[in-house]
Amino acid sequence: MFYRENGQFKTSYFEDQRIFKVRQDRVAILAIVAVAVLLVPMLASDYLLRAVLIPFLVLSLAAIGLNILVGYCGQISLGTGAFMAVGAYAAWNLGVRIPETPLLLQILVGGACATAIGVLFGIPSLRLRGLYLAVSTLAAQFFLDWAFLRIPALTNHSTSGSVSVGTLSFFGLPVETATQKYLFCLGFVVVFALIAKNLVRSGTGRQWMAVRDMDIAAGVIGIRLAYAKLTAFAVSSFIVGVAGALWGFIHLGAWEPLAFSLDRSFQLLFMIIIGGLGSIAGSFFGAAFIVLLPIVLTNVPEFFGLPLSVDTAAHLEHVVFGALIVIFLIAEPHGLARLWSIGREKLRLWPFPH
């Protein structure tokens, strides 16, 4: 009965509008953030930070951005990897041409450039929907992949399109060790997750969801469809662009356009489908699943004395992804976030049957 909310009364509008209305939820979130900030840097190894936690944080941020567009506004996008590339290359170009630019400003400018490109390629959404819109965003992926390979100015005349970053610092503090990079990414994820959660609860977020559920009815009741769709593309692209800059600067350090290929776009789409469309928490669940699955497929068979080759594990990973997407679309379209929500509702009633 530890999760029951008996006696938790709301006596003001502020309390009624809290993100987490149940006290236990607020305590749990604060505890998770405290553990992530204080305990994880002390206890986690460099390998765990670099290979698991930093990719998890950056991919969670990208999944939040994509979930705003696909999950909350219903605009299917297959060009997320390209918008990540725009954020990474724009931030890198700013740092190369104006070396004294602070790292934070580079990353935010990368997000702003991704916003401009996202809105540009989001304009077809005013006339297209469904599969046709997905194809138009897929065109963005192909075009931007070609641009970063064939336009020398975008990569400072690098023949292969590969670039690298130098020493990183945040307002004079170095961002070089695994712990420093982890805390840097964690700060971005906490801030943007909070912004996204509040945004989807606002009037703009309700407009997005109305467009997702039935855009014709949304237009009839006075919602400006063009404004709603383009703001969804803008916000989504900004968050994805910031995630792309973090992926290049913090996780990779050196990258080429293949780091943001179509595979990356599909990976992010798988995350929000498995984690849960229209759920900020589902973005974290999906990212955790995608990051941990290859590790599990590599280590669990070895534990049982059935070693798998790297190629076999990679192919098995794709098979498992495909099977799970089909299973979730049939059995639980709202993904892992819905299962978590059902578990919370059960805890609110436990030990009573109803």
Molecular structure report:
- The protein has 354 residues and is an all-alpha fold.
- It is 72% helix and 2% strand.
- The chain contains 14 helices and four strands.
- The strands form two sheets. Strands 1-4 form a two-stranded antiparallel ribbon. A two-stranded antiparallel sheet has the order 2-3.
Main features:
single chain, 354 residues, mainly alpha, two-stranded antiparallel ribbon
Walk me through the topology.
Layout: H1 13-16, H2 23-43, H3 46-72, H4 80-97, H5 103-122, H6 131-150, E1 163-164, E2 169-170, E3 173-174, H7 178-201, H8 203-213, H9 215-220, H10 225-252, E4 254-255, H11 262-275, H12 280-303, H13 310-331, H14 335-349
Antiparallel strand pairs: 1-4, 2-3
Helix pairs in contact: 2-7, 3-7, 3-8, 3-10, 3-11, 3-12, 4-5, 4-6, 4-10, 5-10, 8-10, 11-12, 12-13, 12-14
Number of helices: 14
Q: How would you characterize the largest beta sheet? A: 2 strands, antiparallel
Q: Kindly state the mean pLDDT as a whole number?
A: 87
Gyration radius from CA atoms, angstroms:
21 Å
- What's the end-to-end separation, in Å? 13 Å
Major beta sheet, strand line-up: 1-4
The backbone outline, from C-alpha atoms, is globular
Low-confidence stretches: none
Helix fraction bin: over 70%
Task: Summarize the model shown.
The chain is mostly helical. The chain contains 14 helices and four strands. The strands form two sheets. The protein has a two-stranded antiparallel sheet. It has a two-stranded antiparallel ribbon with strand order 2-3.
